[in-house]
Amino acid sequence: MVTEEVRVRGTVQGVGFRPTVYRLARACGLLGEVGNDGEGVLIRVCGSEEAISEFVRRLYVECPRLGKIEEIVRSRYEGEVRFDDFVIVGSVSGSINTEIAPDAATCPQCQQEIFDPFSRFYRYPFTNCTHCGPRLSIIRAIPYDRCNTSMSAFVMCSVCEGEYDDVENRRFHAQPVACHTCGPTAWLERADGKPVTASMFSMMDDVDAVCTLLQKGEIVAIKGLGGIHLACDATQEAAVQKLRQRKQRYHKPFALMARDLSIITEYCFVNTEEEELLNSPAAPIVLLQKKGLGTNTKLPTPYSPLPTPHYSIAPSVTLGQSTLGFMLPYTPLHHLILRRMNRPIVLTSGNVADEPQCLDNQDAREKLGDIADYFLLHNRDIVNRVDDSVVRVINHQVQVIRRARGYAPAPIKLPTGFDKTPPVLAMGSELKNTFCLLRGNEAILSQHLGDLENAAAFNSYQDTLNLYLNLFQHQPQAIAVDKHPEYLSTKLGKELAFTNKIKLHHIQHHHAHIAACMAENNLPLDSSPVLGIALDGLGYGIDGTFWGGEFLLADYRQFKRLATFKPVAMIGGEKAIYQPWRNTYAHLVSANFWDDCQQQYSDLEIIKFLQQQPIKLLNQLVEKKINSPLASSIGRLFDAVAAAISIYPEECSYEGQAAIAMEALVDPSNLNNHEETLIYPFQLNFSDSIYCIDPKPMWQALLHDLQQQIPSSVIATKFHQSLAHIIVNLVKHLCQENLIKQVILTGGVFQNCILLTQVTKQLQNLGINVLTHSIVPPNDGNISLGQAIITAAQLIDS
After folding, report:
1. Where in the chain is the domain with CATH 3.90.870.40?
2. Which of 414, 449, 573, 643 could form a disulfide with 649 if both were Cys (CB 3.0 to 4.6 A apart)?
3. To which H or E segment does residue 336 belong?
4. Residue 602 to residue 599: CA distance in whole angstroms
């Protein structure tokens, strides 16, 4: 007989890991104990060496559904402890090296119970067990025990306590366990303060009443898991328009929730990977191809039937897009609301304009009182704001667009060579912000925190950062920030570094994009340089201009700029992001083509429109370099082309709106036609040791097509194909010239499914290994990971 200590690290708290250990230890005939502590789970077992080895083997194989074992370390225990049985002991606090599990969607067993009239959980909207329910959204400290969560306010009844203490029960040590008797409650309020009475509508309870209200065209604010949402019937145009007007969200698409998969497949194609995502514990919003799009419809495999929907989705749900963002119910509350709802609902963030989601009841009443007609609230505090995650499937690979609920804060394992990284804090970007904590051999990436330009979002960012630093007892030895001096995240990072006398690292934006992709693809620290293609809206370059169309030879430590797109003025600065016509005019002027346009193409709508603008003032801004910085941005090139073919030329309400609408116009049937007639030419120049792609000839050909009244869908298709063509040709040359074997595709522009697919496929056909994103977003949501890993590489070298 021997006694061993078995240390388990990973996502092993709050996921039913200790009951699994208990069951397996008994099955293997072992004595001992298991408990949580700051490092994870510590097991002491007594038995034969063969039995202990079998026990450890089964731990790997039978790890709980929400758990993830990163490491198991065995050592001989020399203490004088005597064990008479195998038991579960209480948690021990200490140095925090364990992980926090993400919030998890309602498991099938709990779903069954809430609809079973004979279950004590019948119609209880906060039903959960060790396999599902809130985690990150309710935690204040770790270890993940009830006293460290917002469930500490609710004393368990004797029945719940019995299940909580019963190691054979599915709810053993499920920290949020509760029932009708002892747990949180939900109630309905009117926004006008008048009482809600049962006689107003048929209802089983307040939660069920929400379904009736939605069917009547009302807007209901619903307090959910990680924030408050606004909901309405997605098939009633009047209700959706009312929500848009009140929320002041005029164009961004709304997310949808449906009771089950059969409803979703009435409106969208759903392939195997997408179905798995919808039904996964993460339960994200999945971007799906709409049905009924005529010749532009792309049928995924396996093919889905084309039934006639019982109700049509309101046109205002999504404007100018070929996809719908659907999710399935992920809490018992949502399941109960949608039980009688045989059509989709809009479920969008409960906020005003660009502010963060409301969290608490009074805040919701004050800020959403003019938007919602009713409130469904509850009395369990949301500690940590967690937005819904957004994903899509491209070429059978998952692409995360917004990493939040269900994914954060699951750690990202660092590649070989980073196993002894000192603690690093990376502050992230200005838009689509996340921050990142680096410790040991893993990165803890925060949930999506939004755009920091808004004061409320910046305050939320600081609160969440403080929560993470305290949760993980993280004391950084270095802080990484973006090179842009005006980013609020950069300024805060500088302040923290100065106050705490910590070294500050300034990381170039596009290098961070590339390093993040390298890290998630597990490239070792000492990997050979890759060719990183980083295409986005803009990032601060090392030459004082804004970059956004970059070809960088990069490793984790440094980079060299090999090629770029021709820099063009962003006339009016930030205004160019929201007024696409400014980019069209800037490109035509940059190409010395404006005078010719007024003579040759004066009959075109875009030229007529531009002639009505204050041309003299615009020219002065460019000539005197007043609020018109140069940018090699591909995002702005997309805007310029979109405006030229009459897609939102005057005004956009969010960045990339015109580009997304142009992508939706693309005719897939023409994408594989490689005849030169379908390619707009770009000019490739070489000067000062750098290649530069000039779109001037593309503009000449595109305007000619417009004059020939070529349909916008054909022009959009040709532009996508042409951009892919010049990128691939340049990459082929750069790979040969620099002996490069791997190419990284990153940046927000590569959220464009058409461009990503075309570039990837053509490069692979050339035998080039292409790496893209799947764990973290290609957009600025990955910047903090890149900042952190570059800083770590520099620290390891120092």
Report:
1. 186-378
2. 643
3. helix 332-337
4. 6
